[in-house]
């Protein structure tokens, strides 16, 4: 962590006066714990984080296992917190659940006692890593606690691995008797798969993203309308907005940010899959682009910061599968240069296209038939401003 000594004195004084406190007791040494875009290994003196800027934050941690159990860290768990100025949140580590228990924060006497004891606690509290604050805000400026509450699991925990249980509990002999026998060799792969118990995600642990309709056209659509709605996904996009964000359409960008943070920081692959689907829906909605200028100006800003945080080799390994990102953005830039598009949006899209071409050397004007992003060979000494 960056020390208070290294921080700008005015910033340090303001955070000291207005910052919130996370007092985290009993976290095992070696646990990987972080807040927002920064993480570190917990040492023997660690008891929490101080000088946290008020607002929305993402606390995340991976439990550490002793050498007798391999000495590795477990899967990541995260939770979103909205902190008020000078607020104190108390939590203690539950070794059985391998999770933080925040029930002490509901005890006003305990909170008051901790506040009176802050001077003694101070040497054991690490300062918030202020150097990541600008990055964190750029990734979550459309995300509110209300939106988080609607999207995160009912359990309040965002987990890297799904908590799955059998669809049938097998509490009774009859249930077990109806299951396929496992005391003989399988004759085929299908038979082996059929013998496995059917699993489901534990209720309350699912991320609650908006449902993107599988059918992109209205009921009773003609073949011509089906073709049109398959090329221009505006009907499907408007369906999502009408169902979830009638009052605040730009909150859809907050959902895009939520999915991205869950993936990038929370290690939730489901977040990446949903981010891809929602991005494709937005980028391939030509009619919506003509009538929802503010939504698409906001989308460019959100994508600018998101793509700036992903390592370049990430695109080679994951995003470039089936050429998803380049083909999706190619459609977006094509629509953004079409008739009826607001002039400000058109210019912003052109600048964004030039920025990505320079940063990743992608050619959005070529036919994208290969699986890897197209590379632009720029003349020596030529730069795109």
TrEMBL record:
Residues 209-365 form the AAR2 C-terminal domain. InterPro entries: AAR2 (IPR007946), AAR2_C (IPR033648), AAR2_C_sf (IPR038514), Aar2_N (IPR033647), AAR2_N_sf (IPR038516). The keyword DNA repair does not apply. GO terms for cellular component: spliceosomal complex. Keywords: mRNA processing, mRNA splicing, Spliceosome. Residues 18-153 form the AAR2 N-terminal domain. Gene3D superfamilies: 2.60.34.20, Aar2, C-terminal domain-like (1.25.40.550). Pfam families: AAR2 (PF05282), AAR2_1st (PF20981). GO terms for biological process: spliceosomal tri-snRNP complex assembly. Component of the U5 snRNP complex that is required for spliceosome assembly and for pre-mRNA splicing. Belongs to the AAR2 family. Interacts with PRPF8 (via RNase H homology domain). Component of a U5 snRNP complex that contains PRPF8. This is Protein AAR2 homolog.
